[in-house]
Every structure is written in C-alpha cells, then in structure tokens.
C-alpha cells in the first residue's frame, strides 16, 4: 500500500509544500473524525484532470471515527473516484467554499449527508476533505452538539489554511483523543463546557468546583499551554502533576477565525498509570545497571587479587597462569562495564572491542613494535553471545601478539608487527578474522589438539557454547605470511 506522499507524488501535481500540508492534516484529522462522528476521505485532483479535462480524484487518505460505527468497510486509499460519485467535490475546489449535499451509498436506503471541505495550502485549494455523516442515534445531545460545533469551526480553519498547525505536538501517538475528555474554552479564557471524562480528570487534580464560566486559573489550576494557545494561537501539550501519583495530559488546540483566536479545545487524558509504569521501568533499569556495575567491580576486585598474587609468586609458570586468568576475568568485566551504562539484553560490541584492544595493548609486553588494527563492526549482540565472544577474541589477540612475533623483525626488531581484527555481520552470522604478519604456525599445529590452555578455552567457547566454527592456519609467505584465525558464530542463540 502506497503512502500519502507516494500517491501524491505519482498521481497528482501537488508541490512538496502542499503534500507536506496534507501529511500534517492526515496526522491530526482523527480529531475531526471523532468530533463529527464521521468517516472522512481526502480527495485530490489526479493528473488526468489537467490532461483530459476529466475531473477524476485520487483518494489520498481515509480515517474512521473511534466513537461511531464506520460507513466505509472497504479501504479506499489509492482508488480513483469519478466526479459522478462526488458531484460537489469539484464545486468545493472551484468556489473554495464549504459545500454540503448528499450521496447514494451501497447498503443505505437513504442518501448519506456529505460535507465537502476545501483544503487550502500555500494560498490555494489543493484537495477536498469529504465528511460522510452517519445517522445520529436520536436527537443530538448537548455534548454531541458541542462536538459538532467545534468540528464546524475546525472545518472553516481547514478552508482558511490555518489547520493543520505546523507544530509537531498536535498529532501523533500518545496525544489525547476526543473520548478521553474535552474542555472548550472561549476567547476570554473561560470554560464553556467540560465533558464528564474531563471533569473526572479535573477531580483527579483536586478541582471539584463547577468549571463553566470560570477560568482554569480562577479554579486554582494554571496550565501554561492554555494561556499560550489563547495568546499566540500555538497548539501545545503539557503534563500537569499532582504529587507523584496523578498526571493529566493537556492537549490544547486553538480555534481561529479571521486571524483571531476565538477559543481553545483542550483534550485531557489521565496518564497516571502510564507514568507509574514509566517510573517502574526506570527503577528496573537503574537496578539492572547497579547489578552490572557491582558485578564489574567484583570482577575487577578478583582481577586485582590475582594480579597481586602473581607478583608475589616466584615460580614463572604459576605467575603466567595467574596473569592469564586475570586477563580473562578482565575480558568478562569489560562486557559488564558496558552493560552498567546501557542495561538490556543486547550490548554494543564496538565498545567492547575498543576496550579489549586497549587491554591487550596494555597487558602484553612485546620485544618489538606491535600495532592492532580494527576493521568493521558487529553492531549490537545479545549479552549471552557478547560475553564468551569477548573472552575468545581477547585470547586470540593476546595469542597473536605474544606468540606470533617471536624472532620477528631481524636482530634489531625494527619491523612493525601488525594484527588486524576484521569484523562483519553476514546474514545471521557474526564473523571475526584475526590476521597477523608474524611467523605463522608450527607445521604440526592442529586446533583439534591445542598446545595451550588459551586455545582450548577459545575452541570450547566458540564450538560448544556459541555453536560456531573456528579455523586457524598459516598464510604462505607468497601471500605475506603470518597467521589467520576465523571465528564464525550465530548473531542470535536459539533457546
């Protein structure tokens, strides 16, 4: 299904500014539909009207009311409508006046009342807003009469080009709807009427006095967006709190006639439960961050203890084993350090890689210059993949730096050793390649019979825990020499 913008671009001659105006109208016209208890269509002249003189229309948008059964069961967006079906649409375009009439519709014995509202943008009428009025259930109540009165005032604003507003806060998800509650305020700032739901919301704020004929400020409630809407004709949204348990959202829509603000429609919505849930989520996030922070601190403490124990050891083998264990624990701590800043089930692996490279460069002493280069990225990964993968990569980088450049660079060790870590995502696989320009692997090397504890850990992590693949082989001297290690793991682990 094409969007309004795509339909307008392909099948009309509207300019980008005019299309933008219609997009804003479509984003906020649910207010019009609910106030009028009616289905609505947005018709624009198709390209054919200029080429053939045939006044066909294309339906750019359609909206159904939330407070009344729809008259249009089918989706009409993108369809072509002939003038015979909507005879007064051309009249509304040409006269630039709101026109009323009737239309015969399938499934209805009597003609359906229709309003044709010209839509003005950038000084000219570019489309027609068609309102299909459903049958009222008996005589209109006082509230229904008030809704229809507001709707008519907004229709005149559509014809004048002052609605929709350019401000982005007047439409979109989360804004109050007509059914949430309405207060109508006149040009002097006095309340004309309030619906029961709006009255209930005011009670939640502690206001129990009669509202009609009084301003919100006189009632003891100052809502800045109402004053702003009256003074500057600017729509806005404000959340008014009463303590920590009550939050009411005020959505103000100015009513304008002849460039003067004649009133304000205030839509109210009780968002207390939503704000309470938001606080719970924030508290949960804070708790998770604190847990990761404490885990990181505990791991760093263990790392420090191992490092101190290694310094006290006189046995070279024991000291090396302790330092290797300390480095592996630090690799895990790196993941929790990132999670302590951004809690969740996924982590930005780029931050982990940067910390791992720094850790390897700081912890390994080489007899010759070594440079570690990172190319590419893996994006975000689940934590159950990021943690073992971080340990594996740290082990492989350390192994490349410590063992790949023994007797490298001649007697003066003048050559620079380069270790390149290439990262990429290929479909549902995360791939890492570690390549060095060192001496390569021994002829009898086999990853199936690793010669060190570090490689055994890497093999078990990649194959058993991550269910991936591990390849490791020397590069021929004709291709530059050195060693290549390829790690390929799923970007998500199946449960």
Description:
The structure is a single chain. This protein has 495 residues and is an alpha+beta fold. The protein folds into four domains: 4-140 and 147-155, Beta-Lactamase (2-Layer Sandwich), CATH 3.30.450; 169-270, 2-Layer Sandwich (Beta-Lactamase); 272-344; 346-495, Histidine kinase-like ATPase, C-terminal domain (Heat Shock Protein 90, 2-Layer Sandwich). It has 13 helices and 18 strands. It has helices at residues 4-11, 16-28, 30-36, 48-51, 87-95, 142-160, 196-204, 224-232, 272-312, 316-341, 349-363, 383-403, 453-465; strands at residues 38-45, 57-63, 80-81, 99-103, 112-121, 124-133, 182-186, 191-194, 236-242, 246-257, 260-270, 346-348, 370-376, 380-382, 417-426, 429-436, 469-474, 483-490. The strands form four sheets. It has a six-stranded antiparallel sheet, with helices on both faces. A hairpin with a 4-residue loop joins β7 (182-186) and β8 (191-194). α10 (316-341) packs antiparallel against α12, α11 runs parallel beside α12 (383-403) and α12 packs antiparallel against α13 (453-465). The longest helix is centred in the middle third of the chain and has 41 residues, at 272-312. It is elongated and about 95 Å long. The two termini are 35 Å apart. The mean pLDDT is 83.
């Amino acid at each position: 299904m094409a969007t309004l913008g795509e339909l307008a671009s392909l099948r009309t001659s509207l300019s980008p500014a005019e299309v933008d105006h219609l997009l804003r109208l479509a984003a906020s016209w649910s207010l019009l539909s609910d106030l009028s208890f009616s289905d609505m269509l947005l018709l624009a002249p198709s390209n054919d009207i200029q080429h053939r003189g045939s006044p066909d229309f294309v339906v750019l948008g359609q909206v159904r009311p939330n407070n009344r059964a729809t008259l249009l069961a089918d989706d009409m967006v993108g369809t072509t409508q002939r003038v015979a079906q909507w005879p007064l649409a051309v009249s509304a375009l040409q006269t630039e006046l709101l026109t009323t009439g009737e239309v015969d519709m399938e499934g209805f014995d009597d003609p359906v009342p229709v309003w044709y509202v010209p839509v003005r943008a950038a000084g000219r009428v570019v489309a027609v807003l068609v309102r299909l009025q459903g049958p009222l259930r008996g005589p209109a109540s006082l509230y229904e009469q008030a809704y229809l009165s507001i709707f008519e005032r907004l229709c005149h604003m559509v014809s004048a080009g002052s609605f929709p507003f350019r401000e982005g806060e007047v439409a979109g998800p989360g804004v109050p709807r007509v059914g949430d509650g309405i207060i109508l305020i006149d040009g002097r700032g006095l309340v004309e009427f309030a619906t029961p739901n709006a009255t209930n919301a005011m009670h939640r704020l502690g206001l129990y006095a009669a509202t009609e004929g009084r301003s919100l400020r006189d009632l003891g409630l100052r809502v800045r967006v109402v004053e702003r809407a009256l003074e500057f004709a600017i729509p806005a949204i404000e959340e008014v709190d009463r303590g920590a348990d009550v939050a009411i959202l005020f959505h103000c829509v100015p009513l304008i006639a002849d460039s003067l603000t004649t009133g304000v429609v205030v839509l109210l919505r009780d968002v207390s439960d939503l704000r309470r849930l938001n606080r719970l989520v924030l508290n949960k996030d804070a708790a998770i961050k604190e847990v990761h922070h404490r885990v990181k601190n505990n791991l760093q403490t263990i790392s420090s203890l191992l490092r101190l124990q290694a310094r006290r050891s006189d046995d070279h083998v024991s000291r090396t084993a302790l330092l290797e264990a300390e480095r592996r624990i630090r690799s895990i701590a790196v993941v929790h350090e990132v999670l302590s800043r951004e809690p969740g089930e996924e982590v930005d692996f780029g931050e982990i890689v940067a910390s791992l490279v720094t850790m390897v460069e700081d912890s390994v002493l080489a007899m010759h210059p070594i440079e570690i280069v990172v190319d590419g990225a893996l994006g975000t990964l689940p934590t159950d993949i990021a943690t073992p993968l971080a340990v594996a990569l740290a082990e492989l980088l350390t192994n490349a730096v410590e063992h790949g450049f023994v007797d490298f660079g001649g007697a003066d060790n003048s050559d620079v050793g380069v270790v390149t870590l290439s990262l990429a995502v290929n479909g549902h696989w995360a791939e890492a390649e570690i390549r060095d320009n060192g001496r390569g692997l021994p002829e009898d090397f086999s990853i199936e019979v690793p010669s060190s504890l570090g490689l055994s850990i890497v093999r078990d992590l990649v194959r058993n825990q991550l269910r991936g693949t591990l390849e490791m082989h020397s590069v021929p001297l004709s291709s530059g020499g050195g060693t290549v290690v390829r790690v390929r793991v799923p970007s998500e682990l199946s449960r």
